[in-house]
UniProtKB/TrEMBL annotation:
Domain Right handed beta helix: 78-220
Domain of life (superkingdom): Bacteria
Signal peptide: 1-23
Lineage: Bacteria, Pseudomonadati, Bacteroidota, Chitinophagia, Chitinophagales
Protein name from the UniProt record: Parallel beta-helix repeat-containing protein
Gene3D superfamilies: Single-stranded right-handed beta-helix, Pectin lyase-like
Keyword terms, alphabetized: Signal
InterPro entries: Beta_helix, PbH1, Pectin_lyas_fold, Pectin_lyase_fold/virulence, SO_2930-like_dom
Pfam families noted in UniProt: Beta_helix (PF13229)
Amino acid sequence: MKQLLPCLLLLSLVACIQQPATDKDGYKTHQTFGPGEEAKIAAAFLSLTDSSRITLKAGDYKFDNLSIAQVKHILIEGAGAGKTVLDFSGQSQGGEGIRVTDTKGFTIDGMTLKDSKGDLIKINKSEQVVITNLHAIWSKADSTSGGYAIYPVLCKNVLVENCYAEGASDAGIYVGQTDSAVVRKCKAFKNVAGCEIENTSNAEVYDNEFWGNTAGFLVFDLPDLSKRGGNVKAYNNYLHDNNERNFAKAGSFGSTWGVGNAAPGSGIVILAASNVELYKNRIINNNSNAISVVSGFFIDENAGSKINDNYFPIPRNIHIHDNEMKMDTAFPAAVYEHHTGKILVGIEQQLKAMDPSRKRIPLIAYDGITTNLLTKGTAINPDSLCIQQNDPNLFINIDALHMKDKGWKPSLDVTPYTCK
């Protein structure tokens, strides 16, 4: 027995060496920094190893940029939004404030990011991403702002929660080309789009507030990207007073509908996306349209040439039900200076010409372009637009293919689209 004790002690020591101690949250390495240690922090980000935790104390930090790549099980935490503030306004070159690439198990929690030249945080080709208690803001909301405040793209299993985005020249909260995403309990104010789900599948967006943007919420599928979106649910959101001018960068006003084409006064816009359900949202005083459902043909007559496994231009299986919707008595002023906005104004004018007693364009606008265009079919509602709403002045089928015809008469009959 006495001979065994040294062996057991030796084995115990070897085991300790082979299994480094972890902190209470399971991270093997934990580094803490304070203001004034920016050079050390930047170096620590670049040299991170798997299972690392970095804590940034309360205070103001100034960075050119920060980068993390090819690691697993990472936590970057601050003392809270408004307490730990990372300022990128002094960047010497364009680019993201924080760029995260090829990670698995990445969490960022409890800080404010502000005033980068490009996107504030871009997380690319990563899995198991959590972005929580993060404020991402530009002090000035105009075309000089970066495109995206919070920007996971080409990811899998993403959670964005309890975040706030302001000032983005594209979308405050954007999830792109991603599989499985949740955006919840977030706020977005004074962006072009409050939130955008683009070419993303299996997404849920709920318990958010998007207001004071050009458009509140976008669900887009665009061509020439790596995957198709679908299976998107948005519910229990409060989307209100999104009536501001569109200040997107010039390059986003493209033929494949960049966000520059979103009209001021848009609550929700569905573009070429399929299998989307909108329910129990409060969509209030977005004064051009509460909800728009449009195809890629609405903005690009050559959209059919872009059809492939990752893109289909016509929205299908759209279910809109049990939302509270209201618009004010007039378009927002900014709509008259915007190209898509002018189309909506023209639609309202045509409706008033057909019925002088009419006050406003309806709450839900559908471009009426269906797969009949591709199949030469004649089916009514072949793409399963399903509406269950009891609102007055509810619906318009714009019949966009005939808008330039002399006898153009958009239809207000929702009957073909009422859920059976």
